[in-house]
Design a protein that fits this description.
With about 160 residues, the chain is an alpha+beta fold. It contains 2 helices and 9 strands. β3 and β4 form a beta hairpin. It starts with 5 loop residues before the first strand and ends with a strand.
Length: about 160
């Protein structure tokens, strides 16, 4: 289930990220270790997270492949360490909603948001990002999980 989408303007945000290009089927196996690596790096550098962790899909042209960043917003730049590098989320006009439920339902939630974007006369850009608002480690009940979906708009 998604909340009623809204059009909002986002500000650019500094982030610590790992870039990944993987087959779609591998996402369940790489997300956890990648975010763990990002969090360990910022912790080692004394940088607290400035928001929930996210995935920023740079393009959705090939449905079989994910080309994306896994990261966390930070207030000060991270020093490169291993796969972790400084990154950012862009300032953008986005269609935003919150999806409630397990990660297996994210594909349908994105489909609902895309349909809303198009039905309201907007054109989605190539990229999109998700903030994982609820930490599954802290709350194991998928019915309570919240994922903020952000789809930049063209024009």
């Amino acid at each position: 289930m998604i909340d009623t989408p809204q059009i909002v303007q986002t500000d650019a945000r500094l982030a610590a990220v790992i870039h990944l290009t993987i087959p779609r089927a591998e996402i369940q196996h790489v997300m956890g270790p990648a975010i763990g690596e990002v969090m360990a790096t910022i912790t080692a550098q004394g940088i607290p997270p400035a928001g929930p962790w996210f995935s920023h899909h740079l393009t959705m042209d090939d449905p079989a492949t994910f080309d994306f960043h896994v990261g966390v917003p930070v207030a000060t730049p991270v020093a490169p360490a291993g796969r972790v590098v400084p990154g950012s989320l862009p300032a953008a006009r986005v269609a935003r909603t919150v999806y409630h439920g397990s990660y297996e339902g994210l594909g349908d939630a994105w489909g609902q948001l895309t349909a809303w974007i198009e039905a309201n006369g907007h054109t989605p850009a190539a990229d999109l990002w998700e903030y994982y608002v609820t930490d599954p480690g802290a709350n194991p009940d998928p019915a309570t999980w919240q994922t903020e979906l952000n789809r930049p708009l063209v024009g």
